[in-house]
């Protein structure tokens, strides 16, 4: 594919979320180094690894990668969470850092190598007019590898259900590649969302109510990743989350949640 040299955003950072995914993270880092010029041309010059208290070699691999990434002209650092804040908590830490360091856009990218950085490079310029650009595993043009038919059908069912309830088209409840403008990641309601797997659904409900967004097709591959998802339980909890979160967000901007935890981290450069 032919790429034109064009910067689509003013100041963007890629936040790579990681927990115990050392082998997969190595592949993500190789991809970053191989695609450095194209990512930087698009405005994605800063890389932040977010280590969520991994117990394997994830942090060590992050530290070892910094020098090579900097040689390829990335500005890169490690956000080392002081506690395990869950998937949602790592999002919140990333959004806080994006605001603190004055980025205009934040890309959340999972460090388990299921998503493809080429899809971030390929986002059309016109999509950046939106507040959010959401990666979809189930849109026309998406490519799935290692997904069973049952999982695909289940995801399509929930996409349809969320679309009906939210009255907006939903093509994915939360993939590992999404782009948010500062208008979104500065929203104070986000810090009060759940820290676990259902953070993405709460965020999606908020986005559907208050923000402009578009989906784009992505490639998604499951090889040697370890999943913590239990499909039946997650399905029941997803239904519960849809209606409870929609009600809470819809009532007012006043928080109906418990007080937010203090999310602290160390910055390693």
Note down, in words, how this protein is organized.
The protein has 269 residues and is an alpha/beta fold. The protein has one domain (12-254): Spore Coat Polysaccharide Biosynthesis Protein SpsA, Chain A (Alpha-Beta Complex), CATH 3.90.550.10. Helix content is 40%, strand content 20%. The protein has nine helices and ten strands. It has helices at 22-34, 36-41, 58-71, 86-100, 117-121, 149-166, 182-185, 199-210, 231-251, and strands spanning 12-18, 44-51, 75-81, 105-110, 132-136, 143-145, 177-181, 213-217, 219-221, 265-268. The chain has an eight-stranded mixed sheet with strand order 8-5-7-4-1-2-3-10, sandwiched between helices. A two-stranded parallel ribbon has the order 6-9. The protein is globular, with a radius of gyration of 18 Å. The model is unreliable at 1-5 and 250-260 (pLDDT under 50).
Give a brief description:
The protein contains nine helices and ten strands.
What features would you highlight for this structure?
eight-stranded mixed beta sheet; alpha/beta; disordered N terminus; 269 residues
CATH topology: Spore Coat Polysaccharide Biosynthesis Protein SpsA, Chain A
The CATH architecture designation is: Alpha-Beta Complex
Q: C-alpha Rg, in Å? A: 18 Å
Total beta-strand segments: 10
Strand content: 15-25%
SSE pattern: EHHEHEHEHEEHEHHEEHE
Helix percentage: 40-55%
Number of helices: 9
Largest β-sheet summary: 8 strands, mixed
For CATH, the homologous superfamily is named as: Spore Coat Polysaccharide Biosynthesis Protein SpsA, Chain A
Strand order within the widest beta sheet: 8-5-7-4-1-2-3-10
How many separate structural domains? 1
* SS-based class: alpha/beta
């Amino acid at each position: 594919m032919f790429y034109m040299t064009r910067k689509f955003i003013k100041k963007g950072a890629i936040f790579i979320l990681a927990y115990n995914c050392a082998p997969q993270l190595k592949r993500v880092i190789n991809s970053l180094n191989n695609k450095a010029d194209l990512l930087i041309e698009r405005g994605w010059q800063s890389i932040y690894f977010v280590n969520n208290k991994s117990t394997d070699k994830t942090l060590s691999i992050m530290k070892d990668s910094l020098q090579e990434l900097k040689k390829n002209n990335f500005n890169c650092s490690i956000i080392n969470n002081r506690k395990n804040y869950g998937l949602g908590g790592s999002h919140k830490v990333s959004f806080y850092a994006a605001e603190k360091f004055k980025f205009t856009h934040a890309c959340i990218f999972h460090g388990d190598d299921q998503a493809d950085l080429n899809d971030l490079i390929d986002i059309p310029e016109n999509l950046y007019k939106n507040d959010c650009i959401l990666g979809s595993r189930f849109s026309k043009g998406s490519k799935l590898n290692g997904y069973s038919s049952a999982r695909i059908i289940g995801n399509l069912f929930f996409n349809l259900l969320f679309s009906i309830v939210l009255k907006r088209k939903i093509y994915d409840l939360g993939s590992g590649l999404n782009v948010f403008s500062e208008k979104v990641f500065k929203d104070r309601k986000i810090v009060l969302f759940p820290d676990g797997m259902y953070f993405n659904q709460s965020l999606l409900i908020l986005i559907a109510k208050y923000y402009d967004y578009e989906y784009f097709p992505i490639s998604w591959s499951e090889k040697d990743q370890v999943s913590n998802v239990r499909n039946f339980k997650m399905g029941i909890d997803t239904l519960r989350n849809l209606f409870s979160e929609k009600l809470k967000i819809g009532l007012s901007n006043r928080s109906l949640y418990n007080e937010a935890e203090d999310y602290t981290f160390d910055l390693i450069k």
